[in-house]
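#lab-general

N.A. 3:47 PM
ok so I finally got the sequence cleaned up, no stray characters, all 345 residues accounted for. can someone with queue access submit it? mine expired

B.Y. 3:52 PM
send it over

N.A. 3:53 PM
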Amino acid sequence: MTELADKLRLTCDLTDAELKALIETDDRETAKLLRSHADEVRRLHYGRKVFLRGLIEISSYCRNDCLYCGIRRSNSSAERYRLTRKQIMMCAENGYQLGFRTFVMQGGEDSFFTDDRICEVISELREKYPDCAITLSLGERSRESCKRMKEAGADRYLLRHEAASEELYAKLHPSELSLSHRKQCLYDLRSLGYQVGAGFMVGAPYQTTSDIIADLRFLQELKPQMIGIGPFIPHRCTPFADKEGGSLGLTLRLLGILRLMFPKVLLPATTALSTIAENGRELGLQTGCNVIMPNLSPADVRKKYDLYDNKASTGSEAAEGCAMLKKCIEAAGYEVAAERGDYIG
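B.Y. 4:20 PM
back already:
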């Protein structure tokens, strides 16, 4: 198995059979070598820098009914909220004072946030913070909508494809959603000039190793600048409430594999990783990750953006915990970079 890790480090690719073996192995020496290779590659391209993105969760309303998500429209017990334009700008101001140079506006697919409304916010952010990157994560929108948001000043767009296998995608989503449409949205974003982020859940219900390999092959085809993966964590008010969550070991193996397959990609150590393991974020950084997204949302709404159970949103996961976060990052062997943190490819 260690030979496969070495080969991936040298060639940035493996056959499907080799990937299957590497994904499924629980060999400790291989895991250690993957982590070492991944860390070496991230340091080669990004040094010890860890880029911070200030996350602003603008709405917990969503028109979709994805089977894994706590803010799905069928969840009648979900607490819904929307941030006002003034609240979003206050979050950004707070983040800027704390040193953030990227803002990520994330939310469910909420029809309240029309193109006019969201473009007004983007334009105001662009005018007030010309040195900052503006990232959106607002689900599937039309090509024309994405074009308007790009023209208003948005730089990046995060849209996890969730599953590149048609069969698995259908098991995770309602029938009105399709993988082909999700992929087309990602290709539209690329063609419009966005820096694009895609990704998938690790250990999702019904997911097989073949499904994960399909995800990796799709990412090779798409060539995104950012890749976000994290362990599946069940939510008590979804059809998957009793399903087993994704494991730390598999998530870390896949982070290492992704860093070696995509040497220059921006790779976050996600909140979900921190949720399943107290030192999950630090382990992610040591396995090739170079991005963290602390929460800038108002404290009274963070628990309402309830995608999965026990979501971490305080302490070093929160923007006001920057000093604590900096210490954690430095203790792991890295340093906070006070910059936009653009893709270097």
